[in-house]
Amino acid sequence: MDIYGPFQPALNQLLTNLQSQIKALSQAEVTAGRPKLYEHLIGRVKAQQSMIEKCRRKGYPVTTEGALRDCKDAVGLRIVCNFIDDIYRCLKLIKANPAWQIVKEKDYITNAKPNGYRSYHVILAVTTPFKDVDGNQPGKYYAEIQLRTIAMDSWASLEHEMKYKHNVQDAERIGRELKKCAEQLAACDIQMQTIRQLINQN
Ligand code: 0O2
Q: Which residues line ligand 1 (CB under 6 A)?
C-alpha cells in the first residue's frame, strides 16, 4: 500500500525546506557571535511501513488521511544539541518563527518518560504551496521536531534498538539498567552545562 499517495513529493520538499530553515537559524546565531544551535540535525520522511504500523498502533485509519492528518509526524526532524541550554535557545527561536505554528509540545526533559526517555517534542503546522489531504492549496502539513542533547540521543538510539529485540532474557532487568543509565546521562548533561557556564564566566 502507498500510504502517502500523491503527497510524497510535498512531504519530501517540506522536509528539505524545514531543514534549510533550521540550518539558517543556527547560522544566524553564529553570525551574531553566539554558539551554533546544535551539533547535528537529521530528518526523514517516515518510512511507509513504519507509518502503517504507527496508524494501527494508535488506532488511526490506515489511510493517507490517517498518516497525514492524525499522525502528524510523517515529516520528522531531530535537532541534537551539545548542551541543555542550546535546546531551550533553539526552542525559543522555533517558537518565534512566523513560518509555522506550534500545535503540540511535549517536554520529556522536565517530565522524563517512566523508561528514562528524554527529549523535547514540538509539532508544527506549516502552510505550504502544495495541495493537502483536505484538498486545500496552499495546503497545511504537519512536522515533528525532536530536540535532545547528544547524551539523550545516544540513550534513545540504544533503547530503540533494544525494543526490536523481543527474545531477550530478563527484559525487566534490562529496563532497570537502561533507566539507571538515562539518569546518569541526565546528571552528566547538567554537569556539562555547569562546566560551560564556568568557562563562559572566565
Ligand atoms: P519512530 O520510529 O522513532 O518514528 P501522541 O502524541 O502520544 O499521540 P506519539 O507520536 O507516540 O503520539 O508521541 P510521542 O510520545 O511524542 O513520541 C513520538 C516519537 O518520539 C516516537 O516516534 C519516537 O521517535 C520518540 N519516542 C517516544 N518515546 C520514546 C521512547 O521511549 N524511546 C525512544 N527511543 N523513542 C521514543 P515513533 O513513531 O514511535 O517511532
A: 46, 50, 54, 73, 106, 113, 115, 117, 121, 156, 159-160
